[in-house]
Design brief:
about 0% strand; single chain; 20 helices; about 425 residues
Length: about 425
């Protein structure tokens, strides 16, 4: 039965990849139906994860319509054009901090055209900075104070004596240093000269490579205010989590969970931006960020539900086969997280599905926290929205998916970034905890 269930999961994911976009969420639901048909009890739906993403996306979408996202992209473009030769190193740092700020990697979508354009102007293969930037955004989710993944992780480790503040003190430095080193390694090891790429030369001869610059966007008057309001919301979430943390001990009985606080604060931020920046709510529904975010929610709903159904149905087998192995080799937990995240399609959903299993196996807080960054293996399968967008935006053809599916430019940088994040997590965690 285990083999049959696993085949159903793989077929559902394959079908979703063929459908593309939101279709992977649809196929996940079909996979749950197929598992239920052979007697498998459906698993838990990560409603708290989905609700956090919805609230954060609502605030970001309001900020986008107010011009805040254009303002952030403008500042990004200024930074990259000031140091164009180092775009492979700077681009991932930018997308990392944007993700840290926003709590979702979807915000990096707006920077991808700028990264592509600057790379082309410098004669650098766009696949180099695009791959490191996309991967950095995915890893950044596991360090963002307002991401659903980090909020869930905080709720898991606090009963083990690790405060929200200590969690961030481990995750932020370890992931930041990892993506910087990853970027240097990619710059050193791989040829980045665009002129050396045969696919680019062919597309250039065919006249399909765009050479003109994008038109400059006019920044709206309320753009800076919308960014300030969103930043204020992020700081409010962090302040709430720290004040109400059991490790800090300022509040003995919080009136709400951090999840509820994020929902309240982010929806309030969206309201303030809408009122003070005079944003029309109908326009928010049609914004690219809102559409991408809601699509991500459907994808997580289907795929995470499918993954949780399979994991929960086979939890006893997993404990039996993996318990002693992980106890003797703690780093293997990161390997499990890494490959399962590709199937579960979400850092938060992966953590929620597998972290209870890890705790049941008796892993230490250090192992759990250090391995947490490994839930960022969403780049393994070339189906994630930011990855697909990067491929579509690179008209030079250097950012392409190979015939073997796994041989794409995101795999090696991503694997390096995740591996370094885990290693630094163990190192820094041993000093902080």
């Amino acid at each position: 039965m285990l083999a049959i269930e696993f085949i159903i999961v793989l077929l559902a994911i394959y079908l979703g990849a063929r459908l593309g976009g939101i279709g992977i969420g649809f196929a996940g639901g079909l996979g749950v139906l197929a598992l239920a048909a052979i007697g498998v009890k459906p698993g838990s739906i990560p409603f708290d994860v989905i609700s956090i993403i919805m609230a954060v996306i609502a605030a970001i979408s309001a900020m986008q319509v107010a011009g805040g996202l254009d303002y952030l992209v403008q500042q990004t473009e200024k930074l990259l054009r000031r140091n164009p030769r180092y775009i492979t190193i700077l681009a991932p740092i930018v997308t990392y901090f944007l993700t840290l700020f926003a709590g979702t990697g979807n915000i990096s979508l707006a920077t991808l055209p700028v990264i592509t354009e600057v790379a082309k102007e410098q004669g650098i293969k766009p696949c180099r900075p695009l791959s490191t930037a996309v991967v950095a955004a995915q890893i950044g989710i596991t360090a963002s104070p307002i991401s659903a993944a980090v909020v869930y992780m905080a709720s898991v480790v606090e009963p083990m004596g690790v405060s929200y503040l200590h969690l961030l003190l481990i995750l932020i430095p370890s992931t930041l240093v990892a993506i910087i080193l990853m970027s240097f390694i990619v710059s050193w090891l791989f040829d980045d000269k665009l002129a050396n790429d045969p696919v680019f030369q062919k597309r250039l001869a065919e006249g399909v490579v765009e050479q003109n610059r994008r038109e400059k966007t006019v920044i709206k008057p309320a753009a800076k205010l919308s960014v300030f309001l969103f930043l204020l919301g992020v700081l409010s979430v962090v302040a709430f989590a720290i004040i109400n943390s059991k490790g800090v001990g300022l509040v003995s009985e919080p009136i709400m969970t951090t999840t509820n606080a994020i929902l309240i604060i982010m929806l309030s931020v969206a309201t303030l931006i809408t009122l003070l920046c005079k944003v029309e709510t109908d326009v928010i529904l049609n914004s690219s960020t809102f559409k991408a975010g809601m699509s991500a929610c459907i994808c997580i709903l289907g795929v995470a539900w499918l993954g949780d159904t399979f994991v929960q149905a086979n939890m006893d087998w997993i404990k039996l086969t993996a318990g002693d192995l992980i106890a003797g080799h703690p780093w293997l937990l990161a390997v499990i997280f890494f490959f399962c995240s590709a199937l579960l399609y979400s850092q938060a959903a992966t953590a929620k599905a597998l972290m209870p299993m890890a705790l049941a196996l008796g892993v230490t807080p250090l192992t759990a926290i250090a391995s947490f960054s490994a839930v960022s293996g969403l780049f393994i399968l070339p189906t994630y929205p930011t990855l697909v967008a990067a491929v579509q935006m690179d008209d030079t053809g250097t950012t392409r998916i190979g015939k073997l599916v796994f041989n794409h430019p995101f795999f090696i940088p991503g694997t390096i970034g995740v591996t370094l994040s885990v290693c630094f997590g163990f190192l820094l965690g041993s000093l902080v905890l």
